Amino acid sequence: MLVLLAGIFVVHIATVIMLFVSTIANVWMVDSSTWGTTSSGLWLLCNKTCDQLPVRGGNDPSLKAVQAFMILSIIFSVIALVMFIVQLFTLEKGKRFYITGAIMLVCWMCILIGVSIYTARFTGKLPDTHSHHGYCFILAWICFCFSFIISILYLVLRKK
User: Any coiled-coil ranges, and where (predicted)?
Assistant: First the structure.
């Protein structure tokens, strides 16, 4: 049981770190065109220098929503990590990890909403470029999977 809890703890920490990286770094989309390689994230558009991300076509509310949901997912993931440690040492068997699992499910939902909005509104919009998803976008989807698996494991572990 101790090995299982340690494994879940390590995966949870890895998820928090990957959420930080995917939200902060500016490589959600990479565009290759005649002007060079350009990467864009949630905050900046980077070519040789980074500038404020220009938003066209009324997508500013969508970008703000993606930014908000990704920040909320980080907050909920960190809160769930703290709650895991607190519940591990304070609650008796059978009552542990309800709150932690519920908070991780909220984190999972925030990641789902944020990345889904980004996918629907910001991918493949420039026809004359060769754009592909960057590593931050892929990390966000990996965090989506990990947070769901972790939340289910927390809810299953409450019985042991």
Answer: none
Cβ neighbours of 3 (radius 10 Å): 7
* pTM of the predicted protein model: 0.86
Nearest to 42 by CA among 17, 64, 59, 15: 64
Q: Which residues contact 49 (CB under 8 A, 6 or more apart)?
A: none
User: What ranges in 25-134 are assigned the alpha helix state H?
Assistant: 60-90, 98-122
Look at the block and give the residue holding tokens 């944020």.
114
- The strands making up 29-33's β-sheet, listed across from edge to edge, are 50-52, 44-46, 36-40, 29-33, 130-133
